[in-house]
Amino acid sequence: MSKTILVTGAAGFIGFHVSKALLEKGHKVIGLDNINAYYDVNLKFARLEQLGIDRTEAAQELHYTSSTTYGEQMVFVKMNVEDRQALPKLFEAYPIDIVCNLAAQAGVRYSLENPEAYADSNLTGFLNILECCRNYKVPKLVYASSSSVYGNSDAVPFEERDRVDHPISLYAATKKANELMAHTYSHLYGFETIGLRFFTVYGPWGRPDMAMFLFTDAIINNKPVKVFNNGDLSRDFTYIDDIVAGVLTTLLDPSENTSKYKLYNIGNSQPVQLLDYIEAIEKALDKSAIKEMMPMQPGDVKQTYANVSLLKKDFNYEPNTEVAEGIAAFVAWYRGFYGL
């Protein structure tokens, strides 16, 4: 049965892919994004164009734009999630069955430079989403949390039952706050909330501030690759298709877990050393990197490693993309997108 799903952050990396997958399954998508300038807006508009959303119309504030590809099955509006006047009007205009909240001010390092942006989008904006779900009787909210909530924990793999009381970046603190806020609203108002702790997502149409994009761009353009903590880092790199599969199943499929509040790791569960990751990119590009060894970045963590057994148990989640395969797909997209 077709659902009407609000996807916030629809011009973002994960939001774009989730929206596309929902449309291909026949669901109606109401896409929302503020298209901020945290990174190149042309990439955001290009993603929307893949969904049939006209760039000029998408740039207009609070203008509801229908897709030229999907018709009224896809509607986009440029809006801030923290807008307390505009967001309720969207819920009034469309009978929304499920909310998928992927809008957030992203980036660990940027939170050191512009903390106010994180308070606006990740805290005030998330509260606004919760209030609209409450007031307009939306039965399910799936929202993005982050592996960063685990901080510098030495206990690996990371499990949902681990204590996450020591975030080391404001971004991580806002994501932990989202989990607590969602718990409160599920308890008080009875609607289902599902938090997904994403682990280092990469793939085609990815963000320019993420490692995959930064490394590929630097190697191709003969620039130094900044290798933080002298390469002594590991990440649970997770390919976008595996992430989308997990998001869609939590949005659309029933679970035997009857709790109104759910929280899951969503990752590849196969951490990779940073230097090995760079080597795999070098192989895909057939070109060596110029490595510039750097100290640890403030707010960064040494390792991430997801235990995904809970998501597998409740929703049959099974990531299956090898890192080399995912890197090759990204490199092919990058070359095509930039005409190399």
TrEMBL record:
- Entry's transmembrane regions: none
Keyword NAD assigned to the entry: answer is yes
Query: InterPro entries recorded for this chain?
Result: Epimerase_deHydtase, NAD(P)-bd_dom_sf
Give the highest taxon in the source lineage: Bacteria
Q: Where is the NAD-dependent epimerase/dehydratase domain?
A: 5-267
The alphabetical list of record keywords is:
NAD
Q: Report the protein name in the record.
A: NAD-dependent epimerase
